[in-house]
Amino acid sequence: MTSTKNEHVERGPEAAGETVGAVFVGCGYAADFYGATLPNYPHIEVKGAFDVESERAASFAGEYGGRVFGDLREVLADPDVSLVVNLTPVSQHYTVTKAALLAGKHVYSEKPLASTLPEATELVELARERGLLLSSAPSTVFSQSAQTLLRAVGDGLIGKPRLVHASLDMGALAFMPYTQWRSRRGVPWPYRDEIANGCVMEHAGYQLSWLVAMFGPVVRMAAHTSLQLGGQWPEHTEVAPDISLGFLEFADGTVCRLSIGWVAPADLSLTVIGDQGTLSVGDVWQASAPVMLRRNARTSGKTNAYLGEPEQLPFVIPPARHRYDDTHDLTVGAGVADMAMAIIKGEQPFLSADFSLHVLDVSLRLSEGRGVMEDVPVRAGDDKKLAVAPAGAGTAAR
Q1: Mean pLDDT on 331-355
Q2: What kind and span of H or E run contains 206?
Q3: By CB distance 3.0 to 4.6 Å, which of 37, 191, 207, 256 could disulfide with 333?
Q4: pTM for the model
């Protein structure tokens, strides 16, 4: 059974001069989120980029460094490349990651690890067989907000956690000007891919990674999905369910109500309710969103109030210097940095293959709307890592 105690791991400063050569495969919209934050992590050496649309690879390399690779085979044959960062469309994650592992490269993949659990399991087993590291986004668990929240929960500021209310409702996406969205390099947001993948596969990990880090793996769950705004999209657009409601039970007994969708007004909040108070973050997509503590307080008379005034907790790590100037700040480079440091030190990254596989498993169950309360298998290796708070790993504060 997974430990219910949050242990804090400090990886320590990187060894002077040690770097990991990384190539970015896929240079679309999300690639700018990575490129802009890479200067925070001097142990990552950008060797270059490859994209089937060569002009995107050229603009990425011109903006963030390295050279343009002619094809994937050239990337995989380069002995100076230790780490492949797979930012291809979701439909290509499995193929590109498998090719990289077979070529002896470590892989950090954008979410999800693969489109199906069997494919992802195959990748995890292949990495293990070959002694390679495999990890997957999202990496917001390394943000100032997440690190501070995890530390506060682990330090018992609200007593024993009992209940979590978590939301990833992005607003009614179909009514937004999504065709106008562009990245820093002018790459359009791939709305057709995103809508086909669905709100759960695109976004569930942003909450699940924090929750699993705090409370251990999900052991029981139920879910329901619905499609409400399917008729609002352009013709011939494949549309996945746009609402998912889940009930999760974690290894330490904490339970969670999780709402994910593209229908309700925006709400990206996370509130942890303990028997001695609450901790809350208003927006898990903002790396420096305040973490608010409300302690149980004595009251009298006929009132429903029992909590004291909110107090903002000091962040436990400093802010990253280099950030992506957009509507949200997702610290995406921190996951690559955590992987690179693990390569240097011969360790597993915090966002290990087992961690990533578990988050994918739960995400798939949520996206499929499995309505019956059922047990979620905890695989070998899960209990070793999932309940460990990273406390600074992957951040610029090493």
Answers
A1: 96
A2: helix 199-215
A3: 37
A4: 0.91
